[in-house]
Amino acid sequence: xxxxxxxxxxxxxxxxxxxxxxxxxxxxxxxxxxxxxxxxxxxxxxxxxxxxxxxxxxxxxxxxxxxxxxxxxxxxxxxxxxxxxxxxxxxxxxxxxxxxxxxxxxxxxxxxxxxxxxxxxxxxxxxxxxxxxxxxxxxxxxxxxxxxxxxxxxxxxxxxxxxxxxxxxxxxxxxxxxxxxxxxxxxxxxxxxxxxxxxxxxxxxxxxxxxxxxxxxxxxxxxxxxxxxxxxxxxxxxxxxxxxxxxxxxxxxxxxxxxxxxxxxxxxxxxxxxxxxxxxxxxxxxxxxxxxxxxxxxxxxxxxxxxxxxxxxxxxxxxxxxxxxxxxxxxxxxxxxxxxxxxxxxxxxxxxxxxxxxxxxxxxxxxxxxxxxxxxxxxxxxxxxxxxxxxxxxxxxxxxxxxxxxxxxxxxxxxxxxxxxxxxxxxxxxxxxxxxxxxxxxxxxxxxxxxxxxxxxxxxxxxxxxxxxxxxxxxxxxxxxxxxxxxxxxxxxxxxxx
Length: 498
Ligand code: AMP
Ligand code: MG
What we know:
Strand content: 15-25%
Structural class: alpha+beta
Bound molecules: adenosine monophosphate, magnesium ion
């Protein structure tokens, strides 16, 4: 046990389970206190859903908990071990700057991560060094933590499975990167932090028993309904295939680019995790890459569905020894499940894209209607989000692509398609309104909010968060959030931003 001071009064209802796994899955953490914690943003709605007493947690004494300065009685204070394939290369990793403080149990299952669960990890990101820190300082910077807060909350409001952000605190300490930055800690919420990389760790270092205990834990926590299936480990693989086919299709249909789809950044639950160099695409271009380190475009927009599949294969490999004692048999069985991914992905993608175009039923030409639109958007360099907003609200169509004969022809085809379906045109447009976000976290608006926050003004970020909380509401008074950035010679770049 550690020697850290503990607070008794709990604002949480912890029911910890991760420490029931063998000790090699985690390391207990001694806290690394920070100088002068100051709360800069707190997610009241999320706290309420989590049945956390917000007033209690925001008290001076308890903020010390979110700062990682004091432990709370009943907390578990561990860093989790995991490996990962980073840009294709296998490495030992682990929580190098995060600590899990406990698992919050709620009274009934809720979908605050867009995945139903009655238990959520409470994790501090940026809380200091751990045995997995390698050369790092274990700290995080204010800008990237606020960026994670803004984008993860936007994803939630777009109904995309995601980890959530409960709070960000400034630490009052300097963090040394290429420039001196303000330190910060983010409180992250997830239905669990189990990653594909956690399984890779077990398979590589702990053998069959290690993978088995982890797989049973994952099934219990995320997919308990497969527990009595004939081959529950094959079923686990199938659930993960389904969850990621669903997730990545959602990303593609809002133009979200994760940027660092390494296997350590892929969850077993199918929640988006690790908001580092991610960003939303503006001009439609399937080759779009924002991350400064993704020099070969491995995680470009167009590659995301295939990279998810590649990652799932690495996960599947860890399960083979549980699926069947005969290796060849196990590979055959796993492959049959893995082959389902592309069909499932395509079904999800087609469904989402049809909703974006107001199509309820099925016709053979639907895929062509969607692809023709996307090709035109690429050719005429149209904005992904705003194109669908224009089609939905019949606005801003007196320019660019919309004035071409090609588009007029496509539009006529599409309108005829809508008229052929049983549901009325009004219903079609209603479906489009519910499927096409009017606002997304546009890169220049996010940067503007972060710059102001870095200078101590949080109002710009609060306004942005408020606009993003209602992404499907068309309002004239938020035009500035739909506008494109001023053209520049330099493409937008994101950084892993540790
Ligand atoms: P990420 O790129 O954020 O997914 O991180 C990859 C790995 O590097 C994970 O094991 C992180 O815990 C670790 N890491 C990232 N930043 C730091 C840091 N400042 N100090 C220590 N470890 C870090
Ligand atoms: Mg990571």
